[in-house]
Amino acid sequence: MDERIREHARVLVEWSARVERGDDVVVSVGPEAHELAAAVYERLGEAGANVVTTYDSGELTRAYLRAHGDEFETPDHELALYEHADVVLSLGGGRNTSATADVPGEARQAYATASTPVREARMDTRWVSTQHPTRSLAQQAGMAYGEYCDFAYAAILRDWAALADEMARMKELLDDGSEVRLVKEDTDLTMSVEGRTAVNSAASVDYDSHNLPSGEVFTAPYATEGKVFFDVPMTLHGKRVQDVHLTFEDGEVVDYAAESNEAVLSDILSTDEGARRLGELGIGMNRGIDRFTDNILFDEKMGDTVHLALGRAYDSTLPEGETGNESAVHVDMITDVSEDSRLEVDGEVVQRNGRFRWEDGFEA
Amino acid sequence: MDERIREHARVLVEWSARVERGDDVVVSVGPEAHELAAAVYERLGEAGANVVTTYDSGELTRAYLRAHGDEFETPDHELALYEHADVVLSLGGGRNTSATADVPGEARQAYATASTPVREARMDTRWVSTQHPTRSLAQQAGMAYGEYCDFAYAAILRDWAALADEMARMKELLDDGSEVRLVKEDTDLTMSVEGRTAVNSAASVDYDSHNLPSGEVFTAPYATEGKVFFDVPMTLHGKRVQDVHLTFEDGEVVDYAAESNEAVLSDILSTDEGARRLGELGIGMNRGIDRFTDNILFDEKMGDTVHLALGRAYDSTLPEGETGNESAVHVDMITDVSEDSRLEVDGEVVQRNGRFRWEDGFEA
């Protein structure tokens, strides 16, 4: 076994999920995540956890949803499983990122709605999602398999404690600040973050962070004004959308354009009122992720990028009891800030050309 | 997809488990049973069942058990899952039938003991175990993969309703009879079946039968006298045991011999008192199973064979409240009755040279 698989398992079980003796753990295993699962089971055995293994296959979901009508019940047995679980580890790894492409939207939506209590019970655990590097993900990234493995482990096997400390600086700046401004090519955008709390997403439940890899600091901005250019490509509704321009007034998108598949952007913006406002401002700080791989779990944490999401805000960024922007969608869009750019908080430059103010080479 | 896979799924869901709309179903999928699982999900979707998929891998079990100490708790989340389930479908299919060979017996035993409530909850559902034909099972049988698939589907895709009707005749003979006698080479054995109820194991929960394939009628004999020769080989504790001779007096084994690995037989017989008495007499009636494949799920149902098990009797064969032979073991041994043999119930021949009394060519 590649020693990096064992290390991935160690980070997941110890740093990310903080598994302890006696924890009731559900491990969800993708068809191609078997090797990572074996390494995780070794760690869970050592930790003295109790384990149930579920199988997460897009092909089985497809077969089931296509054959089913669209009247679903909440599955009581699945709900009972998660209500009694302390930890859920999701080890993604499929054979085809398009495995459910021909499932009708209605069936997908009806099933998701019936499963809401299950999803909520799962979110009440110390859950963490990660991905085993697979040939299917390598293909999606346009990379050879060995090359992709090197990329994935560079992103996953970081010194997370050190990164958490560095990200704490960015969190403090955002928490103390009122207005964030982003300036780069075709971009001059201001957002309010007053009263919002940034999340130091350090790939651990102890940081309210549920993805491995992670490595971003995010908050929920509002009162957005100005224009922004997203030069990192993205796949939305199965289509490649590239070079998006948005213009905001009074917090809402008033103008938009995209170099390719603009209609998809148009669809998203017309979903509901909240889809025209921002739900997230994220600062990508994982420099192990050094390129776009068409996989949002990785892309949005890329070092020297900033992402903004149209749609729903995460509760963790809001004061207790306050609701942020609401929407049925949450669509992340990414812009490269490694060159000719600056990020300001209350008029003070905190990142310029990819360098943070606490780094060597930073120019105020 | 091989059309036989779809047919296997249909038999499993409809005939075996009798799945109905709204049933909470747990499907356990082996690493190589993915294709069968996809066919089963299509059926479960059509039936309108609710599904949770678990992953059953010997390699994960091995990793977990070897790393764990031997102090296990009952996993509450797993117990909750099965307590809320109506149906459990187990789709076996591994990559290596020796996947757990190096797990220490103590860990295996301690885990099994802690999991007893889970196992009992599973047995309280409409559970059915089947196997997807795999290269690993083909290898164990000493067969090419295509050849093995033909064999497996001949065993699984039977006219089960017709076989159930035929087996009902054998059940009636055993239920009405007092004494069974088996005569063949080196064999003249009598057993009492008075007061016991035979199970018509027709691969359906409606027949109290939980294996697919099945195709045997079995009961719990006692007061065994005489000698018996088992000429079908078997793998016990990982070793090939061949040509076993047993001699019974007053229901107990008083003499034994085996052509190979006699020590394994000796170990089994000394497990406990019940290990020296019979717990099962089974009549194999599935003629789709026409050869030994070193897989007990199939072997014991082979047409024109009789099997006897040392050890534990199944409750389903006993009058309500009565306990049969008790033992920590249940070890099936098989004898070929296709030639030069006869099976009698109360002195009347019911099977001679593999022909049953209701069949053409039967000689009383």
From TrEMBL, chains A, B:
Q: Would you say which domain of life the source belongs to?
A: Archaea
Entry-linked Pfam families: Peptidase_M29 (PF02073)
GO biological process terms, alphabetically, are:
proteolysis
Ordered alphabetically, the record's keywords are: Aminopeptidase, Hydrolase, Metal-binding, Metalloprotease, Protease
Quote the SUPFAM superfamilies the UniProt record gives.
Thermophilic metalloprotease-like
Molecular function GO labels:
aminopeptidase activity; metal ion binding; metallopeptidase activity
Instruction: Spell out where the chain crosses the membrane.
Output: none
The protein's required cofactor(s) are namely:
Zn(2+); Co(2+); Mg(2+)
Report the family membership.
Belongs to the peptidase M29 family.
Protein name according to UniProt: Aminopeptidase
Origin organism is: Halomarina ordinaria
